[in-house]
Write a structure and sequence with these properties.
The chain is an alpha/beta fold. The chain folds into 2 domains: about 210 residues, Rossmann fold (3-Layer(aba) Sandwich), CATH 3.40.50; about 180 residues, no CATH class. It has 11 helices and 14 strands. The strands form 3 sheets. The chain has a 5-stranded parallel beta sheet with strand order 2-1-3-4-5, with helices on both faces. A 5-stranded antiparallel beta sheet has the order 8-9-14-11-12. It has a 4-stranded mixed beta sheet with strand order 7-6-10-13. A hairpin with a 5-residue loop joins β11 and β12. α3 packs parallel to α8 and α5 packs parallel to α6. The longest helix is centred in the C-terminal third of the chain and has 25 residues. The radius of gyration is 24 Å and the shape is globular.
Length: about 425
């Protein structure tokens, strides 16, 4: 290949890359959510397993803190656009969406359908369009048709125990993602591409695995993908990124500022004023990809004396690191503000579990099946109504989010060896 041909191809590839980045941006914005919206999540295993972790819902609620939204998960592992296997006499999806008075539906499909390969692509597009139009023909809240958001499947991770042609699977998933993008553009529906960013993460070797078996996300996978998903839905303020010198003087501050720097008998003390919510800590024992550190609060302290230094927070929590580690930057996720957010996430999980006990009760045969007229079958509906009542109360309580303190005093001290 001569130099001019090489140059033309390089420019062509660059243009394609720029176009791809532009296409990857979704038209989603904060207007997708309005005051006191009731948000429903539907889809297969990706949507279903969200209720076990709570990362997406916690982040979404906090980005919409001023709108007091509520969220309910109707995901069911194995669901596709056209196949919703349910117990006999189980109420329809339209019934549940109407019962919830749904305003917004987040559709998470494509993974199960993608196993049909190229041969199923056209049918997938038609089925997605038909389902979207069906939702739009309803008024679940009694007034207006629901607003829709499409979410693509994630990529297939190459795991050692997998006997799958991962390259082919990702080709199929890419094609189904692009078909979702086409339908979303045709219908004017906001779209979030999770395939491209998840595939990029899976290619990086500096973080924990995203899945347990190649397609089902692990706890860390949900933490990681939730950051990307919610940031696309509602871009938020930048996390707290602070840089100080060894004397405590600020060098750089994003997402907040440092006030009132004092010297103590053994070290330094300063007040940290954050602009926004704290960031969610990843699951314990996980290693965060370097490219995702932008979603975490962190601080760098440069030119410290050689040795180990301890940063203490109110409430007794602390982080210990060497001078070199402090200089490179240390993640902050154990302050009172962060613990408050983690407690909120656990409350989200508790609410989801209570609703799950009612909606997906294990003894469905006594509720909607052949034993529904038995003594236990006659008693169970009252128990389910109570589960729904409790979950509904918790949903409303969670919609009123307490603002965390945005001011904390941190103290840095050298750690004395014993």
């Amino acid at each position: 290949m001569n130099h001019s041909c090489f140059l033309i191809r390089s420019i062509f590839n660059l243009v394609l890359a720029v176009l791809f980045v532009g296409l990857a941006k979704s038209p989603v914005n904060g207007q997708s959510f309005q005051e006191r919206d009731r948000v429903a999540i539907v889809g297969g295993a990706f949507a279903d397993l969200m209720h076990l972790h709570g990362y997406s819902e916690t982040l979404l609620r906090h980005r919409c803190a001023d709108k007091h939204i509520m969220v309910r998960n109707f995901g069911w592992a194995g669901d596709t656009l056209t196949d919703r296997a349910r117990p006999d006499n189980f109420a329809s999806e339209d019934h549940w969406l109407s019962d919830y008075k749904t305003d917004v539906i987040v559709l998470c499909f494509g993974m199960g359908e993608s196993f049909a390969g190229d041969g199923g692509l056209a049918a997938f597009g038609n089925d997605l369009k038909n389902l979207a139009e069906h939702y739009r023909s309803q008024t679940y809240n009694g007034v207006l048709a629901p607003r829709l958001i499409l979410v693509s499947p994630t990529a297939h991770e190459d795991v050692a125990s997998s006997h799958v042609d991962v390259h082919q699977r990702n080709n199929d998933l890419r094609n189904y993602t692009e078909e979702m993008r086409r339908v979303s553009a045709e219908l004017g529906i906001p779209f979030v591409d999770l395939f491209a960013p998840s595939k990029a993460l899976m290619a990086q070797s500096d973080g924990s695995r995203l899945t347990s078996n190649g397609i089902h996300l692990s706890a860390y996978g949900y933490w990681a993908i939730s950051q990307i998903l919610v940031d696309e839905l509602i871009p938020g303020n930048r996390p707290l990124h602070l840089v100080l010198d060894g004397g405590g003087q600020p060098i750089q501050a994003e997402g907040g500022r440092i006030n009132q720097i004092d010297r103590t008998e053994t070290g330094l003390s300063w007040n940290v004023e954050a602009n926004a919510w704290p960031t969610l800590a990843p699951p314990e024992g996980s290693t965060v990809h370097a490219s995702l550190r932008r979603f975490q609060d962190q601080i760098a302290i440069r030119s410290l004396p050689s040795g180990i230094h301890c940063l203490r927070f109110p409430g007794g929590q602390s982080i210990t690191a060497t001078d070199k580690q402090w200089s490179a930057g240390v993640i902050i996720d154990s302050t009172p503000r962060h613990r408050q957010l983690e407690a909120y996430r656990k409350s989200v999980n508790e609410k989801n579990l209570k609703y799950f006990h009612g909606w997906r009760a294990l003894n469905q045969v006594h509720i909607v099946g052949e034993r529904r007229k038995s003594p236990s079958g006659r008693a169970l509906p009252a128990e389910l109504i109570e589960w729904f009542r409790i979950a509904g109360e918790q949903d409303r309580d969670l919609s009123s989010i307490l603002q965390p303190s945005r001011n904390e005093t941190w103290t840095l001290e050298p750690k004395i060896s014993k």
